Amino acid sequence: MQASDLPAVMHIATQVHPGYPEEFAVFFERHRLYPQGCWIWEQAGAICGYLLSHPWYLDAPPELNCMLQTLPSQATTYYLHDIALMPVARGFKATDSILARLCAQATHEQLDTLSLIAVNQSAAFWQRHHFQTTNHLVPAAKLQSYDHSACYMVRQLA
C-alpha cells in the first residue's frame, strides 16, 4: 500500500464496514507507523481490498477509531487491525494469501500470535482460520466499542 492508495482504501472501508467508521487519520497513521503491514488487494488493476496490521500488545487491542501515537518497542502479538474485500475480490483465496503474509510478517517480527477483533458476525470465519475466541482476556467495554457481538480472537503460530 502506498499513501496515494488511502482514498481508495477509505472508499472500500465505507462500503464493507459501514457500521465501523474510522477517520482517515487512523488509516494514515497506521500506514505511517508500519507501512510493511499495510497491503492492498488488486484485481484487473483496481484496488478491491486492503489490510492494516501491525505489532501490538496481546490482550490489549486498540479501540475502534483510535490513534496509536506509536508502536510498542516490546510487542507481544501481531495485530490485524482491519481487513476488507469488496465482493469482486471474494472467492479468489485472497484471505488465504493475506493470512500467509500475516504469518510471515509476524514471524519476521518474532511474534508467535496473530490477534484481531472479529465483527459483523465473522467469528466463525476466523475460527476456520485457526483463531480462537479469547474475550475473557479483554475488558468487555473495549469490545463493545465495536459492537455487542465483537470477539477478541488469537491464533497461535508456534
Question: Can you walk through the features of this model?
Answer:
- Residues 1-158 form the N-acetyltransferase domain.
- InterPro entries: Acyl_CoA_acyltransferase, GNAT_dom.
- Pfam families: Acetyltransf_1.
- It comes from Methylobacillus flagellatus (strain ATCC 51484 / DSM 6875 / VKM B-1610 / KT).
- It is a single chain.
- With 158 residues, the chain is of the alpha+beta class.
- It has one domain: Gcn5-related N-acetyltransferase (GNAT) (Aminopeptidase).
- The chain is 30% helix and 25% strand.
- The protein has five helices and six strands.
- It has helices at residues 6-16, 24-33, 94-108, 123-128, 140-144, and strands at residues 38-43, 46-56, 77-85, 113-118, 132-133, 151-156.
- A six-stranded mixed β-sheet has the order 1-2-3-4-6-5.
- It starts with 5 loop residues before the first helix and ends with a strand.
Record keyword descriptors for this entry.
Acyl_CoA_acyltransferase, six-stranded mixed β-sheet, 158 residues, GCN5-related N-acetyltransferase, Aminopeptidase
Please render the helix and strand layout as text.
Elements: H1 6-16, H2 24-33, E1 38-43, E2 46-56, E3 77-85, H3 94-108, E4 113-118, H4 123-128, E5 132-133, H5 140-144, E6 151-156
Parallel strand pairs: 3-4
Antiparallel strand pairs: 1-2, 2-3, 4-6, 5-6
Keywords: Transferase
Pfam family, one: Acetyltransf_1
InterPro entries: Acyl_CoA_acyltransferase (IPR016181), GNAT_dom (IPR000182)
